[in-house]
Amino acid sequence: MRAVRRTALLYVPALWTLVSCGIPATGVVEAGGPAQGLVPMLRVYLVENGSLVAVPRRPAGVVDAESAVMNLLEGPTDMERVKRMTTLLPPLTAAPTSAPTPLASVSPTAVPPHGSAAEAAASAAVSVNARSNVVSIHLRYVTEELSDLAVAQLICTAAEAQRTADAGTGTEAVTVKVTNARGRSVEGSDERCPED
Which helix (H) or strand (E) holds 128? Predict the structure, then answer.
């Protein structure tokens, strides 16, 4: 019984030391919002020195073929222009939902305004439909034929986003059909798209 009391007496000073270490008791401390998880990424394909180059961007919303194409049609950011990246696609006459955002300056919680006149005009000028491994892009505002490299920008951007939206399932190539305002179509797949 004495051994038990001695052991208990040894624990009391140790407990007292831990309790009185000088750290004040606090309640719940609010320190920002809840964890957000992974922020989605998309890659748009721009032109640098006559070749396609994949450029990472963080969209304001979900990554799908439509958001990627709209992001591409907004053209290069100021930072991308400084790096001499360009696009061969004609600009939209009405600006899409928001300017493209480079990775370094995006907030994961940024949300573009919905229902704006610019968004409606862009939707009327371009339609993107995606199902499984097939994406159709109708550029109602483009009357001329696009160059092969301009079409490749659209094909690679839409196919990459479709693979991301489908969570990378399947190894089958994604086919993209691009149609202009005159009904002329060009079809291709992502088999020849550069990785980086």
Answer: strand 126-131
